[in-house]
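Wed. Picked up where I left off yesterday with Vacuolar protein sorting-associated protein 45. The coffee machine is broken again, so keeping this brief.
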Amino acid sequence: MNVTLAVKQYISKMIESSGPGMKVLLMDKETTSIVSVVYTQSEILQKEVYLFERIDSQNRDNMKHLKAICFLRPTKENVEHLIQELRRPKYSVYFIYFSNVISKSEIKALAEADEQEVVAEVQGRSWEPSVLPRVTQGLTSVLLALKKCPMIRYQLSSDMSKRLAESVKQIITKEYELFDFRKTEVPPLLLILDRSDDAITPLLNQWTYQAMVHELLGLNNNRIDLSRVPGISKDLREVVLSAENDEFYANNLYLNFGEIGTNIKNLMEDFQKKKPKDKQKLESISDMKAFVDNYPQFKKMSGTVSKHVTVVGELSRLVSERQLMEVSEVEQELACQNDHSSAQQNVRRLLQNPRLSETDAVRLVMLYALRYEKHSSSILPSLMEELSRKGVSERHRKMVQSVVEYGGKRVRGSELIAPTDAVAITKQFFKGLKGVENVYTQHQPLLHDTLDQLIKGRLKDSQFPYLGPSSLRDRPQDIIVFIIGGATYEEALTVYNLNRTMPGVRIVLGGTAIHNTKRSDALYLFKSDRDLCNINVCDTNSV
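Structure written out below (tokens, as returned):
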């Protein structure tokens, strides 16, 4: 355990992350001493650092040809100096690193000061002092509600996972009387993971009903805002989708888009049989919408079906408008296959499509950057130029680098992207209504493999150690999975399927958020912003 070497490696990563080019190292009094202890001037010159400055110096010149690497202690004085620096930047771009935790309010102040958008990244990943207790409270509340006093395993590559595991264990130990539940033959297990181990899953378009609603329309406390849908009636401007109170939604929650449309179509055709004179074809989603509009009696009798026809109709409109079938096919290729030549051609082709939205364009380049991060023939710089020509904002372009810093190879503790022969991957096709065909669902989240290994007793202690000396000898039965940084509905589907196919195993999935693209963008743009402290538990029919 060599502290000097550890600090030297940390500073080396800071410098290397800024890429090639001339650099200035901007420090405070204390970090200047730290750097001088671990690096000689000749050594750091070899890393293209040609200038050393203090953040509190008032006599620095403008040098727009230099990149600034800021290595600072997170003091109020340093944050204020940095705010003033960003308001009148002297260098072309800033890479900001703090030696310890920085608060969300200070991150926000820095973001507001960065009016010229010169900050490339802010590093300082750790729990905010106010957030860790909130997440601990939420997680222990879930354990108490489930009447579980679990053994705990955590992701070793994530310091945040370890700290949360220790915090939960501390509460269980302190409040041992509250957690004194009836002992079971096999103790329950809490598995704490970090989103950064799988940054790909939140970036993929999904094709199950619940996931599509959340991604394209937004699902907030089971409510969907449809007020912006063209021609929407007053009674459908906001609708509720709850598996507890909506039988159709409960039965179709995890079905793919084509099957949902088919199920609605079948319900309508059953009703039409009662009115043979008025029978009409129901070949597409637009036919179904017209059918509902023309039958007030049907709307009155079947408000639930009317609601779902409206929702599915809007989903279909958005899929067509944004060409999500084609986008999703390329996303799946990036996530699951290993053909760089084909991938780069398809990404470039889509970026040149004027109908491709800014969100989908950035997401495709993010996936490419993660998938081919170290590829010798990477065309990432060219794709970034393509985003710029397309008019994508600088703020969104910066997210590409942010997602690599958040969940790239250097950060991941697991093998997210294994070398795979493209021929070995079987494409799955779902057929449904016209306009809802060829939906690719090749991808499986990393969580599937993690849970599969856990249930089979093969999850490595070296990567997911137990907190404390005890360990499970038998196959786990009750598993609570918690993902720091948020879970996705694709992962909820994985848990649902495991609960159905693994007799005697009951899994609950939770996290600090339930992601869609908007949440994912925020997470990757501000990597230190782990304040998503509401505990979200996905309904996976596990309890």
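Quick read: The first strand starts at residue 23 and ends at 27.
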